[in-house]
Amino acid sequence: MKNWKIWVRLTAAIWCVLVVVWSVMIAWESQVNRETAIRQAEDFSKSIHEMTLAGLTGMMITGTIGDRDIFLDQIKQLSVIKEIFVGRGQAVIDRFGPDTKATREPDELEKRILKDGIAYSEVIRDGDSDVLRIVNPVRASSNYLGKNCIMCHLVPEGTQLGIVSMKISLESVDKEVAAFRLKIAIAAAGVCLLLLFVIYFLTRSFVTKPLDALKDGLQDIARGEGDLTRRLPVKGQDEIGQTSTIFNEMMENFNGLVRQVSNSAAQVSSRAQELVHASRDVESGSHQQSEKSIQAATAVENLVSSIASISENADHVNHQSQESLHRAEEGDRSLKQLLAEMGDVKHAVTMMADSVGNFVQSTEAINKMTQEVKGIAEQTNLLALNAAIEAARAGEAGRGFAVVADEVRKLAEKSAQSANEIDRITETLSSQSVAVRRAIGDGLEHIASSQKTVDSVAEIISATNGSVAEVGRGLDAIAAATEEQRRVSGQVAEGIESIADMARQNNLSVEKTAAAAQSLEALAEGLQSTVGRFKV
């Protein structure tokens, strides 16, 4: 629909509006006619109602009420009456009895109206067509159609006597309404076609043709290879003429704008070339700066690495010196402990020498005692020998004494042997004690010499400890200095790295600027080429 021509869309829109309007009008008019016909049918039903009651009243007066079914059947023969039913109320049934000639019993609706006495009227569907269902109550009245109902029925005025129920066909009404609707629709279609033709003629004359002329002029300008000197013809001051005038003014402004754009494009192209050359120079300098920054960063990193190595070595040496100091202090303590132990050993050896001297004196006393034991043993041996001689002289009486003397002699010999053995041992002990005393004396001399040597070593170690402590303090100072230098060098390296990063970023920015300048130059040349197509 967007691609339709204006006259087609305008005509279609007006036609749709006319169709909607005529449809609403036809539906409304048809509904009004049908409602009018229904009201006429209701009026007709009232006439039938009065006619039926008038006929039945006359038949009651003439005594022919028994033939009322013939009368009602005659009414049914009317073309619009599909059904009519006269039902008796309770008051009439009480006086005259039920209706024995009734063709059917009252339905629920009729029973309700016999009870409440409210009239009913509604259009309902009956088979294939609509009917108007009407049920009217009949009440006793002293003057109904010129007759007094109360005299015959003998009931109070207003008593419900019965109902008259009928169905009035609306088929003819529907046919008339449909025929009227068709006629109106045909007339509306004819009017719509006539209006569409008039609208088409007017639209073509006052809208389409001027727009086609405007379109042709715009196509000539568009296909004229950028000729901005052409103008549209102005043939009036209507909307089309005003549009042409405004378009001509716009083309004049556009002409000036294109001229300004052409001049600006030339200036932009010149400035873009200058920017390209400058950006190339800046790009070359930025590359050199980036390379120098990278070299400086590498050198600083090597310096930081060397400082870190020196710091690590200094830390290692400091650690070794501290370890040496610690071990020297332990050696000093060990030497002091050794001196104390050597003093104890000297004291023990001295006591041992004294003990050995005492032992030697004891061995000499033992030797003297063994000499005395040997003398006693020899004397005992002599006594035993004398006793044996005397026992031999005594004969048999001295035999027991001879045995004892022999045993004593054996003991004396054993004692002499033991004394000799003890003497030999004591002599050995004496000689060994002399050797021990000589060895102890030598040991005491060596201990004294060792004490002097250890004292000298202790003095040397103490001096070494002072030197090592001084070296440790110097190494601590070196380590602190190298750590500070490494920290400062690290900061310098970070600064140079930041400079290098900035140089790289600057290099990228310069490259982007150079690329943008080249693109700007190409765009300026393209703009000049495009603007050059227009004729101003």
From TrEMBL:
Residues 264-500 form the Methyl-accepting transducer domain. The keyword Membrane applies. One of its GO terms (molecular function) is transmembrane signaling receptor activity. Residues 205-259 form the HAMP domain. Belongs to the methyl-accepting chemotaxis (MCP) protein family. The keyword Transmembrane applies. InterPro entries: Chemotax_Me-accpt_rcpt, HAMP_dom, MCPsignal_dom. Keywords: Membrane, Transducer, Transmembrane, Transmembrane helix. Gene3D superfamilies: 3.30.450.290, Methyl-accepting chemotaxis protein (1.10.287.950). This is Methyl-accepting chemotaxis protein. One of its GO terms (biological process) is chemotaxis. GO terms for cellular component: membrane. Pfam families: HAMP, MCPsignal. It is found in: Membrane.
